[in-house]
Amino acid sequence: MYALIDANNFYVSCERAFNRKLSNVPVLVLSNNDGCVISRSQEVKNLGIKMGEPFFKIQSIVEKNNVVVFSSNYELYGDMSHRLHQILREFSPEVEIYSIDEAFIRILPLQNGMNYLQYAKNIKNTISQYLSLPVGIGVGRTKTLSKIANHLAKKSEGICILDSEEKENTALKSTPIEEVWGIGRQYSKFLRKKIINTAWDFIQMPESWILKNMTKVGLKTLQELKGFPRIDLEEVRPKKQGIATTRSFSQKTDDFANVQEAIATHASRCSEKLRRQNSIATYLTVFIHTDPFAEHDSQYYNSKTLALPIPTNSQLEIVKFALKALNLIFEKGFYYKKAGVIVTELMDENSVQGNLFYEFDTTKHSNLMGKLDEINKKYGKDTVKLAIMGQNKKWQLKREYLSPRYTTNWDEIIEVKAE
DNA sequence: TCTGGGGTCCTAGGACCC
DNA sequence: TCTGGGGTCCTAGGACCC
Q1: Is A252 (CB) below 7 Å from strand B?
Q2: How many C-beta neighbours within 10 Å does residue A104 have?
Q3: How many Å does it take to go from CA A268 to C1' B5?
Q4: The domain made up of A76-225 is a member of CATH 3.30.70.270
Q5: Of the candidates A158, A111, A156, the residue with the CA atom closest to the CA atom of residue A3
Q6: What distance in Å separates the CA atoms of residue A308 and residue A324, rounded to the nearest whole number?
Q7: Protein A338 CA to nucleic acid C17 C1', in Å?
């Protein structure tokens, strides 16, 4: 059996874990640049505020209802996520970290006559006690079924166990097709047209029809819903095949220097992410564009992909070529709103191939980067950085409602006072 | 005034090879 | 009059996930 554990309204719940006054009041968390709503407490959902809604459009509802607003604090959420996953490892050796707020585990044969419900309750209580996070737990024969169970858990005390055929059938009949993991908007629309409205309707269809209309991905979903595992637990997180760092600017800008700083910074982040997974990149893409919502501005979008002479994860090289690409596409006279760097065709660090016509001391660079990462890990991000990354605030993230980094920064640790 | 940021996999069709 | 039969690789686009 598999269990899927996910935290309810994860980002909001992280904020609440450190501030008791936030329980039972409406709380929401915004995306980067305080742009859109990306996490909502139940009270906020009840107010009719939708996921992904632009913040400026709901300002009056927020004020009228005293909604507490936070900028996203990924340092906090990332750390809480890590703690959550550590707890899960105490309950099963086989854990797949599926996303920042979700994990699958394989349930090994239970000991001492314990049943699945007791097991799940145990997990839920432990997480609540250690982290003050509310979680939902779904248990089923396959990952897809455990997802369904997890959905149903939201309606019943946070736990749902599908451990018999009757329970499975009832669950499938009450699950609308769009809630099935792997069936998104397009397929839902298509299936609804064919009068396939629930997960139950879906599993009545012949495999050949599913294969023809929904490729082998759809077929896997079908078989998983019938109880045949087709999607394995991925205990070891596979290395990423491509890495992107892209951001909107807090204010649009027509100044080359600003865009250049942003690209240098994003390129540096890409190189850090590459080094973290011991990869090197073969290609690098830079893109920039204007604000598509600014209807009266003239619009411009362009991107440029360069092959790196030698695949690398050196910050110096990646920044150098990113700026070269930027120079090829930057046009004066536009107001830029977003820029990004993407590295692709990633390979293992140890499989570097030389280039006869390009002088580059791989060892020297990798030693330097090793030291750089060490310093920045010990003393904080960007303690040592390239001058070209700049100090300019103009393009940097807007985060007006940021909470403290309670768990990862000594200066921001929570204080308890005895009265 | 103000609108996020990442990822994965699959298929069809074209270019090319013999 | 009649015009084969395999392959591979790459890319764009479309679907999905959080």
Answers
A1: yes
A2: 26
A3: 17
A4: yes
A5: A158
A6: 11
A7: 24
Give the pLDDT confidence of A312-368 residue by residue, as tens digits. Answer: 999 999 999 999 999 999 999 999 999 999 999 999 988 777 777 787 888 899 999
CATH topology classification for A242-389: Dna Ligase; domain 1 (3.30.1490)
Nearest nt to A266, CA vs C1'?
Answer: B5
Determine the CATH number of domain A7-73: 3.40.1170.60
Measured from the Cβ of residue A19, the count of other Cβ atoms closer than 10 Å reads: 15
pTM, rounded to two decimals: 0.93
Q: Measured CA to C1', what is the nucleotide nearest A215?
A: B10
As a rounded value in angstroms, the CA-to-C1' distance for A308 and C7 is 31
Q: Confidence class of residue A398 from pLDDT cuts 50, 70 and 90?
A: very high
Closest nucleotide to A99, Cα to C1' = C18
Task: Give per-residue pLDDT as tens, A205-251.
Answer: 999 999 999 999 999 999 999 999 999 999 999 999 999 999 999 99
Residue nearest to nucleotide C14 (CA to C1'): A186
Distance A322 CA to B17 C1' (A): 36
Nucleotides on strand B lying under 7 Å from protein C-beta: 1-11
pLDDT the model gives residue A351: 78
DSSP string, A109-169: PPSTT--HHHHHHHHHHHHHHHH---EEEEEESSHHHHHHHHHHHTTTTTEEE--SHHHHH
**By C-alpha distance, which of A118, A132, A152, A129 is closest to A7?**
A132
Query: What mean pLDDT is predicted for residues A152-169?
Result: 95
The phi and psi torsions of A52 (rounded to 5 degrees) equal 80, 0
Token representation of residue A211: 């294969």
What residue ranges do the domains of chain A occupy? Answer: 7-73, 76-225, 242-389
- How far: A276 CA to C18 C1' (Å)? 21
